[in-house]
Design brief:
The protein is α+β, with helices and mostly antiparallel strands and about 425 residues long. Helices cover about 30% and strands about 20% of the residues. It contains ten helices and 17 strands. Helix 1 (about 5-15) crosses helix 3 (about 140-160), helix 3 crosses helix 10 and helix 8 (about 335-345) crosses helix 10.
């Protein structure tokens, strides 16, 4: 199988220069109108490939590549999201190409930012590769436009090579994954696949079928603001209450000090003043019991602090976001065995370490569609240090094609 790197570069450049940043403050779906710019382009490109498409008013674009065999097979799906993170500038993306990366630090455009293996040691794994990087002023948006590219290039290859036998393939390009809403309006019945894969992973070889259990917590601290000159025994400083609350959490159970299966509390944002201060946390743990204990701990801290005040100044609101998809995927081992065989055939070492981030597959698996996650070849998401390895993206395209073939090999017996 031979794929042109330039095709991947051209398509990724075309997609990342379209601003599709989602907005957590919006109540619409998609959360931003600009996501339609890429969705409509993809709809046209899928139609040009000869696929039947179906896009609903909430921005869920489905497409079908019909089976080219005369026997029944399960329908496999491939998914990627079109939105990019709201955490960093996503306008005027100006992608740069580095040929044959030699491992030395890369200055990002005219900024003072530098891509260096001293800070990002995983870049040692992409030495000699062709990289797409940013100019340091924006994120790249390879999360998850690289996944979109890989699915599109695989479809292009399959439609131009009918000698490759495959069953029915369903494709979904979805909005708002970066703000946790990707599957909220996803119609699993309309998608009508037996199992699926999100092309939304990171480093070469990732095949992820375990994820965090996840929740968001909003801690609201209510203070009493009086003149500081007469504040003794009267003022309650909401900012200090927030600091006290956070200090009572285990200081080593934070993202920057955990790995693997270790869970954490992550203080995402703190806003406020003496009168009122809010702290926004995300809670993550792979183990369901530990996850429940983490949520319980927040409530216990609230109760402990409130017990020293007459008016109970601290409130805690906790909302679950998604659960460990491994609970739904492990009872369906074929969903993992199929890509494992493809990885082995392509000489890709499978890394099944649990994903330490969000994926639509977590929610979709609980909605009845088992959906593991596969690498895209990109890293340092959500900021100016993001990069994509075109070489690894090429392998990811081969994995998509290989899964389509392996479904035939598995069930045509």
């Amino acid at each position: 199988m031979f794929l042109m790197k330039q095709d991947l570069i051209d398509r990724l450049t075309r997609y990342v220069t379209i601003d599709t940043q989602s907005n957590p403050e919006s109540a619409t779906t998609p959360s931003t109108e600009k996501q339609w710019d890429l969705l409509n382009l993809l709809n046209d490109e899928l139609t040009d490939l000869g696929l039947e498409t179906d896009i609903d008013e909430q921005g869920y674009l489905f497409a079908t590549l019909d089976s080219n065999v005369d026997f029944d097979l399960p329908t496999v799906g491939f998914l990627a999201h079109v939105d990019t993170s709201p955490d960093f500038n996503a306008t005027h993306v100006n992608p740069q190409i580095i040929e044959n990366y030699d491992g030395t630090p890369i200055q990002l455009g005219k900024t003072k930012r530098t891509l260096s293996q001293d800070v990002f040691p995983a870049m040692k794994n992409v030495e000699g590769h062709t990289l797409m990087i940013t100019d340091g002023t924006s994120l790249l948006g390879a999360d998850d436009k690289a996944g979109v590219v890989e699915i599109m290039e695989a479809l292009k290859y399959l439609t131009s090579h009918p000698e490759i036998k495959h069953g029915k393939i369903r494709v979904a390009f979805t909005p708002d994954e970066e703000i946790g809403r990707g599957p909220h309006q996803f119609d699993v019945e309309r998608f009508n696949a037996d199992f699926a894969y999100t092309m939304d992973g990171s480093e070469y070889g990732e095949l992820q079928y375990e994820s965090f259990n996840a929740a968001e917590a909003i801690v609201t601290c209510h203070g009493v603001n009086v003149h500081p000159g007469s504040a003794k025994d009267a003022m309650i400083n909401a900012v200090l209450l927030g600091q006290q609350f956070n200090a009572l959490l285990p200081q080593n159970e934070v993202p920057e000090r955990t790995e693997g299966y270790e869970g954490f509390y992550h203080l995402m944002k703190i806003n406020g003043d003496v009168e009122k201060t809010t702290l926004q946390y995300i809670i993550r743990d792979h183990d369901r019991n530990e996850f429940e204990l983490r949520k319980k701990r927040l409530v216990e801290i609230k109760n402990d602090i409130n017990s020293h005040f007459e008016d109970e100044p601290i409130e805690v609101e906790i909302n679950d976001q998604y659960y460990n998809m491994g609970e739904k995927i492990e009872p369906n081992p074929h969903v993992i065995d199929i890509p494992k065989r493809v990885f082995e055939r392509l000489g890709i070492p499978a890394n099944t370490a649990p994903i330490r981030g969000g994926t639509d597959g977590s929610q979709l698996s609980y909605m009845g569609l088992p959906t593991p996650n596969i690498f895209t070849g990109c890293d340092n998401f959500h900021g100016p240090y993001e990069y994509a390895s075109i070489d690894v993206m090429e392998k990811a395209v081969q994995v998509v094609i290989g899964i389509a073939e392996e479904v035939v090999n598995t069930y045509n017996k």
